[in-house]
Specification:
By secondary structure, the protein is of the alpha/beta class. It is built from 34 helices and 25 strands. It binds N-[(cyclohexylcarbonyl)carbamoyl]-beta-D-glucopyranosylamine (F58). This is Alpha-1,4 glucan phosphorylase.
């Protein structure tokens, strides 16, 4: 990489006082027009909406720039410990409004744009959200970096700048069709490329031993090929506290040396092909959710971004000659699931091979620098890399892993002599079904702390996923319940409710969400309840407008709005939700219940299926089929409606969640690690119907059981039923309504009479039903009947909804971050 000189002559330094433009309307307009003219190169009269948006984004950046540069300089100067958040995904959502909110500029910008004859509402719609994540895990990372900046904790988020983020979902004849997400196409005003800080990353080749100058035997890696990682920096502004942290995302580029040699050989076509090959590494986000992809490109991505990130922190952020034995005083890396775990052998390689530290000392340092968060309970979601692949792509790393494992197993044998079964169970390298590296074991061995993401999950992690590890190292395991940022998901997403809350208790809640408790007495105030209902109504009209503009869709919102939005996965049980809807449909269609006796509802689904997850895609097709049948039946008009807007993403969530009355959190107990959508809904005043799973457990405990609709098997009951041998068809046989619902689908009632269309879905439920939807069906319908009864009393419902808001302060990601700091990181904020 080209490393330009960095130092600036002193006389110039004195001139370089970075000053934000004046934060008033005139100051803004001047800066905005300057950006439009000189940055974008157009006059106001000729500017397209995209020109205007880009100029606006750049103008807003200027207001944050001084603080950002200050934070970066401080990081170099002062010996403070930073958090290095290592995550393959950041599901950021739109940046403009977040920046305006953090910098308190919304008023000035609205007025300034109006002076130019422009509207902020139009410009904000121009932004393509960076969808650099799949779902909960990626969104959590985005919430966490927001909270750390707001808490003034120094943090660098490290990740990948995917050229294509999560696919854009469309429906063709009710089936999901994926389109590439071209989020960079119209310009990316929020990023700052820094090619001068590029990092080389190597792959493949072999290792060899040699005798060093000091006579010691050492190993070196002779790689076969390499790429360059170019960092792109993003601002992560704290909420009105003057702190701006950095998110650094890496983009892969071909090395000059690599293609020059081929160019010189005269083969232009091959040279360009080499470039494409290198740049493929950061081309696209893997859209798999819950089950990892064992593909080589995925391992390349993982190693690519952690190699760049470690070198960046150790040799760029810190001085080149920094005493690395003191590294743990300056950084703590958090491994967001196993995707970045290859960082562990990489750090060992840097310390032992490059910096020539003794192995034991390097291991001591490494163990102090890493902690690991697990986000799953599904065994198939635990990453295992085939030994052959890992050894071919990263031969030196494989050797290092092998040695870590050998030393670890020696330790296990010393503690439990003769227990070879235990040794096998715990080994980082498994023998069966093929030789593979169990990344969760490597992460656990190398980390100071291992945490789950909700109380129940952390307990199951200890007892069921990593039981041997928690037995030998009980103190290593801890819980940090997830949280969501109140800035994006309440203050920004729900301005009406925010206004009402602020009027009642002041605006301190935005950074201290526990303050919402002060709303509790107002749940008993009839006029407050009426205003709260008014807010819901306004949020529903906002949603209607959005869907009309976005999709040309007319959403009926008079009825209760019942929402299930999350990735499509069998364990989350969208099929159970469908069985409820089909049963209501059948009750009316068969005349068992008069339409007038049904509590009217609008059901909204939002869900992407992994492109290769066949059953999930069939379920999407079925949801759309049920929607079109239900919505075109005149007898159901004003009674039942099913909407499935395509391409659910962060932006849609921001309008959808504040409008919801009922939040569907219906995974099989013991399968959803935490959930975070559940928190967003409760915080926005929706009541939850949910199982005793993930963070639902804590939500219910906090909001009170009267304000939460619990149903379904408990986790130990699931385990028992499984052990007995679960027979889904027995539930079908013994519940007439369930039988009718499944028979209707099977008979083709939603597929134009064609019984084949959904036969696989029905057959899967009837004969396999891995996630026990049929076992929970009756309990679910009963709970839905309780929902109907409760909703009939609007005033009592509002009371419960307000109590949900008042009691959910715990679910702020600020609190999660404080927990990480206290239990895991031991870092301090900077003043
Ligand atoms: C999610 N995991 C959990 N994984 O399912 C959810 O319960 C939890 O609330 C959330 O993490 C945050 O802790 C999740 O989103 C992924 O998307 C991975 C992407 C890469 C492949 C494996 C799944």
């Amino acid at each position: 990489p080209v490393k330009g000189p960095r130092s600036v002559p002193t006389h110039e330094r004195a001139l370089e006082a970075v000053r934000a433009p004046a934060a008033d309307v005139d100051g803004f307009v001047r800066e905005f027009l300057r950006e439009l003219n000189f940055g974008q190169g157009v006059s106001l009269a000729r500017a397209t909406v995209n020109d205007q948006y880009l100029a606006l984004a750049r103008t807003v950046r200027h207001y944050l720039m001084a603080r950002w540069l200050e934070a970066i300089a401080h990081q170099r100067r002062e010996p403070v410990k930073a958090v290095g958040y290592l995550s393959a995904e950041y599901l950021l959502g739109r940046q403009l409004d977040n920046a305006l909110l953090a910098a308190d500029l919304e008023g000035v910008v609205t007025d300034g744009l109006a002076q130019c004859g422009l509207s902020l509402d139009t410009l904000r719609e121009q932004e393509e959200e960076p969808g650099l994540g799949n779902g909960g895990l990626g969104r959590l990372a985005a919430c966490f970096i927001d909270s750390l900046a707001t808490l003034s904790v120094p943090c660098i988020g490290y990740g990948i700048r995917y050229e294509y983020g999560i696919f854009r979902q469309t429906f063709v004849d009710g089936r999901q069709v994926e389109q590439p997400d071209t989020w960079l196409a119209l310009g990316s005003p929020w990023e700052f490329p820094h090619p001068e800080s590029s990092q080389p990353v190597n792959f493949a080749g072999h290792t060899e031993t040699f005798v060093d100058d000091d006579g010691s035997e050492r190993t070196r890696w002779v790689p076969e090929w390499g790429v360059i990682g170019v960092p792109y920096n993003y601002m992560v502004p704290g909420y009105r506290n003057g702190r701006v942290n950095t998110l650094r995302l890496w983009s892969a580029q071909a090395t000059k040396a690599f293609d020059l040699s081929i160019f010189n050989g005269g083969d232009y076509v091959d040279a360009v092909r080499a470039q494409t090959f290198a740049e493929n590494i950061s081309k696209v986000l893997y859209p798999e959710d819950s089950t990892p992809q064992g593909k080589e490109l995925r391992l390349q991505q993982q190693y690519f971004f952690v190699a760049c990130s470690l070198a960046d922190f150790m040799f760029e952020v810190l001085d080149k000659d920094f005493d690395l034995t003191r590294l743990p005083e300056r950084i703590v890396f958090q491994l967001n699931d196993t995707h970045p775990v290859i960082a562990v052998p990489e750090m060992m390689r840097l310390l032992v091979d490059v910096k020539k530290l003794p192995w034991d000392q390097a291991w001591e340092i490494t163990r102090q620098c890493f902690n690991y968060t697990c986000h799953t309970l599904l065994p198939e979601a635990l990453e295992v890399w085939p030994v052959d692949l890992l050894r071919r792509l990263l031969p030196r790393h494989y050797e290092i892993i092998d040695r870590i494992n050998a030393e670890f197993l020696a330790d296990v044998r010393a503690r439990f002599p003769g227990d070879e079964m235990m040794v096998r169970r715990m080994s980082i390298i498994s023998d069966y079904p093929e030789r593979g590296v169990r990344m969760a074991h490597l992460a656990t061995v190398a980390s100071g702390r291992v945490n789950g993401v909700a109380e129940l999950h952390s307990q199951l992690l200890r007892d069921k996923v990593l039981p041997d590890f928690s037995r030998i190292w009980p103190e290593k395991f801890t819980n940090v319940t997830n949280g969501v940022t109140p800035r994006r998901f309440l203050r920004h997403a729900n301005p009406s409710l925010s206004g009402l809350i602020t009027e009642a208790i002041g605006d301190g809640w935005v950074t201290d969400l526990d303050k919402l408790q002060e709303l509790e007495p107002l749940a008993g105030d009839a006029s407050f309840r009426a205003r709260f209902r008014e807010v819901k109504r306004a949020n529903k009209s906002r949603l209607v407008n959005l869907l009309r503009e976005r999709d040309g869709y007319e959403l009926p919102v008079e009825p209760m709005l019942d929402v299930m939005v999350k990735r499509l996965h069998e364990y989350k049980r969208q099929s159970l939700k469908l069985l409820h809807i089909v049963t209501l449909y059948d009750r009316i269609a068969s005349g068992r219940v008069a339409a007038s006796q049904i509590q009217p509802r609008t059901f909204v689904f939002g869900a992407k299926a992994a492109p290769g997850y066949w059953m999930a895609k069939e379920t999407i097709h079925l949801i759309n089929a049920v929607a079109s049948t239900v919505n075109s039946d005149p007898a159901l008009e004003g009674v039942l409606h099913v909407a499935f807007p395509a391409n659910y993403n962060v932006t849609l969530a921001e309008t959808l969640i504040p409008a919801a009355d009922l939040s569907e959190q219906i995974s099989l107990a013991g399968k959803e690690a935490s959930g975070t959508g559940n928190m967003k809904f409760a915080l926005n005043g929706a009541l939850t119907i949910g199982t005793d799973d993930g963070a639902n457990v804590e939500i219910r405990r906090l909001v009170g059981e009267d304000n939460f609709f619990l149903f379904g098997l408990l986790e130990p009951e699931v385990a028992d039923l499984s052990a007995q041998g679960y027979v889904p068809s027995s539930f079908y046989e013994s519940d007439d309504e369930l039988k009718r619902a499944l028979d209707l689908i099977a008979a083709g009632a939603f597929s134009g009479g064609n019984p084949d269309t959904f036969a696989p879905v029905v057959s899967n439920l009837l004969h396999e039903d891995r996630f026990m939807a049929l076992a929970d069906y009756r309990a679910y319908l009963d709970a839905q009947a309780r929902v109907d009864a409760a909703y009939a009393d609007q005033d009592a419902w509002s009371r419960s909804a307000i109590l949900n808001v008042a009691r959910c302060g715990f679910f702020s990601s600020d609190r999660s971050m404080r927990d990480y700091i206290d239990r895991i990181w031991h870092t301090d904020p900077v003043s």
